[in-house]
Protein 1
Amino acid sequence: MSSPSSVYSKLLPMPYHTVLLVIVWLMLNSSIGLGHILLGLVLGIVIPWICAPLRMHQPGVKRPLKAISYVLIVLKDIVVANIEVAILVVGPMARIKPGFVAIPLDIHQDLPITVLASTVTMTPGTVSCDISEDKKWLYVHVLNMPENEQEVIDLIKSRYESRVKEIFGC
Amino acid sequence: MSFAIELVISFFLIVGGIFVLVGSIGLLRLKDLYVRLHAPTKATTLGLGGVLIGSMFYMHYAQGYITINELLITLFLVITAPVTAHILAKVALHHRVKMMQRTRNPHHVETARMQQAPQVLEDKSKDKDSNTIK
């Protein structure tokens, strides 16, 4: 990394990750004793030293409020997905019409695509399978395809992709 | 612990248990790997979620303290479950795992495993009844 080599950026190459690691460490131990804070700080400083050279530049979250509302929408969809899939699984197998669709992507950075692919997997009847090398197509397996496959593509694009795009501002 | 609290805890445990059970039934009943992937990735997230919420209530009212470990378990589960499903699906594509006869658009498998853009066989909006590979 050839960033301006101030002492600060050498010591804490990934400040947010340091904070996150300390918090998760304290949560794991469910205590805020001095010992755990110290140990958490050691981990929070040493792990970024090791990981910083591996880091690739990713777009940051530009609109945190949108991100929170996105999480809530996805949580709601997860509950709906569970009930829908549960009914399909228990019902007659003849009702299940699986299929693949390829979804054209408007976002081309790794992190937003990962978020989108994970969301697709967590939500109603869809699992993301693969992504094309040029990051323009996401292949999705659909548990129960409607007659017109365009419906699935439009739903994913309008409900999730547009929001992910806004959150990361790309 | 009052009766109402016990009721709430049992509600969450039972709902969670039902979803985990349905996930396992799905694994057993569904016909091919791709379709099977849907059952555990989804039914298990809500199932485990229900059990964990029940556990949080129990810890709070019976033991008198709030545990955050359950939140962490949920967080790790939400992060890791889609990645596992994605990798499994990807491996299945690469091994050309057999799929159900009526799977639509099986031609996507060939381009997906090469990580190329999909071939347009015909007019995209038009419904195409396809025949399976193999």
Protein 2
Amino acid sequence: MMVDIIPTAFLFFLAAMVAPFVPVVLRSVLLVALPILAGFQIWYLPEGMLLQVGFFGFELELMRVDPMARIFGLVFSLAAFLGNLYAWHVRDTVQQVAALLYAGSAIGAVFAGDLITLFFYWEGTAIASVFLIWARRTEGAYHTGIRYLVVQIGSGVILIAGAALFYRETGSIAFENMTLGSLATWLIFLSFGIKCAFPLMHNWLQDAYPAATVTGTVILSAFTTKLAVYALARGFAGTEILIYIGAIMTLFPIFYAVIENDLRRVLAYSLNNQLGFMVVGIGIGTELALNGTVAHAFAHILYKALLFMSVGAVLFRTGTAKGSELGGLYRTMPLTMIFCVIGAASISAFPLFSGFVTKSLILSASAKEHYYYIWAILLFASAGVFHHSGIKIPYFAFFAHDSGLRPKEAPPHMLIAMGIASFFCIAVGVYPQPLYALLPYEVEYISYTTTHVITQMQLLMFSALAFTVLMRTGIYPPELRSVNLDSDWSYRWLLPRMIRKIATVVAAIWNGILSFLTQRLKNIIAGLYHSHGPEGRMASTWPTGAMVIWISVLLGTTLIVSFFG
Amino acid sequence: MSKHETDPAKLPALGRMFLWTGNKSSVDRLVYGIYGVCALLFLADFFYEKHVYLAIEEVPGFYALYGFFMCAALVVCARFMRIFLKRDEDYYAPYDVESEDYPEDQLDKATHDG
């Protein structure tokens, strides 16, 4: 077979194999340079099915290049570049190799043209990414990593089960748009849903992301969930149930985000909320809506990484990311603060920032298709996201009360990474045309109309007003050191205790039966011993002669057997 | 101001530019500024032709009122939820990172003046 193209994912895997043997400084260069190389490759790839490989009688499509795959591939490369630049100081080979394998798997999955290839890369992202959590090297991180891995691997297992059933039903493993209906498609849908953090399947995200290392969280934030968004957009565009699932996703995390203390977990909740917008777009499934989803995923990866980078820099310098412990850091970390505010303005969709030109596509699509309640929920969620991410994160980290912490500004490589991410956030917001040109469908949408700018500013400024009023009246809940129960309580607290309870009862019954039986057996043995033992009454009647007879019988039998044998 | 006050001359120049945010009267001015901007934005609704899809969007100040009241409701609800959901930080310990310190060897803690 002539291979005239190397799959982009393989570039990452190759680098991951070489990385441990490369001198330390060169390794950081490799980590930063490789995503750029990958980005160029993706940019210049022609469209079409570029590489087939035979696999146990199946034809695997390793490189399906079309506009949708291309834009995700590009933004994943960009995210890998930013994440690795941000992690320039890291000397931990495990994290570096994991980051390469993780980004490679995510990009591989995006170009996968069939369900089996998708499965391999799907599990690849799960296995590679958990090392970014374990790399924290604490007991808590170890357990969190295990929980994360169980969920992620579980999602993959469900995917391959669905793919197998799908093959039996249709005789095809092609990864194309599917219709929900059979068990096969439901399993695939469920598998995507777990990775996309659907309501009640979401908690792995808020559990795991704040447990990763400073740099690990930045890298984690980009890939897994957006890969799931891509997979849903590819496989289930126009599936109506996604509209309602997405609406719930935009809604409930914002309540948690308001009362959460760990700022990285606040960001994980708002990530979940932003995924909701994308899922709604996929559910609506029109060209406008899908463009909105893809554009929003692009913008989201960048501003989310930027926000995680700024909070990560605070953690890196102070040792904590908790709102209750921070405050007043603008004095000594002003650049990090400014970058954080740019990320916050982008996620809040302020005019001239990236969220403004991408989220509105989804909102317009929902109104156009007459989903009015959904539109109202999305509007509420937009205001809410400004409230908890846009204001809360910069306010409690950099302003609010003075914590007395005077940390040094973030190191230069972190500032450069944040600066580049900020540049993209603003560039997309100010001049969205190049991004629109990359979208899967033709865009006939103008973001900057008087109505849109003024109504959006009204929404945001009055949310800010609400924050101000609530803060000054003392109604706003203070940041407290705490844990808030979420659905993970069911499997982290309730289930172990239920199992323990059931185990105690079962064990008690088992022990009861067992001790009853042993007691009976002991009684029988004691009885027999009493009657037939050496001291027993029955023993006194055994004549010695009986034994002699039996011995002669044995001897006689042996003789006969050996005579004929 | 507080016991933490450091010599402004030692702060980075950019950090000094934001010192006013620690000053109560400046914050008051900022808050009045927000009130003013909000009032203007509300009034702006009467001075341009709205191009919207939905009837409800036509209501003057709809976005403003929706943003304000929904956000207030969000915070009040969240505060109420805290009554049921809040637990101690070591609730899941030791199976959770929440009550652990971040490993020092992975950080680069440094103060701004040295």
